[in-house]
Amino acid sequence: MKIAIEVNGVLRNTIEKLKQVYEKFLIESEEDSLGKTFEIGDDEEISEVEIIKEEFKYEIIEPITSLELDNFLKFKSNEEKLNFIYEEFPMHIFGHAPSSEMTTFNDFNEFYTEFREDHEIFIISDEIGKSKPSTLFFLSKFGCLVENVIFYNPKTIDKVITSFDLIVTSNPDLIINYSNSVQFVKYETEYNKQSECILKISTFKQLSDIIKNLKNVKVIQ
What we know:
By secondary structure, the chain is of the alpha/beta class.
């Protein structure tokens, strides 16, 4: 069986790190600028407080209950959002994010060692541009033993996702859109509570029992 483990949400707490970076470099930077004055002409000064009141306000709306991040992290435009995540701070967000659990990679490496003889095990991840090397750094930093890493994007998602027999994911969109052709194990998070999936885990360690007993589980598509 070809098994794919997704990085975001399952191995990496990307959302939590994105929130931290957003707060530090957008919200706190904006707050630090309040009250400063700037010289205009010879004698005039203008307070930045007056300017900020009329400008766009960065904010985080919690809890984050879906992956429609535009509803929870405010950006001036989609271009600004993509630039922030994938050009300015990809290493901060994707490279230095924490693992989903304290023991995620210990459990993952044990899982890989236990099942690699009987199954093909892959890591897959939805990445764009500079988030790819940042993700490789993340996997290296945590001592990931898996050799097979596949990145996908909106153009390649169909080919990648449907090439596996089983995918462990926290992404509700994958479960909804591909459940007719792929079997899923949902890694439960705050943002996927509404998505239905027969097989589910709340810790990575539970995946071993799912795989061992999979032949006894009747999956209704």
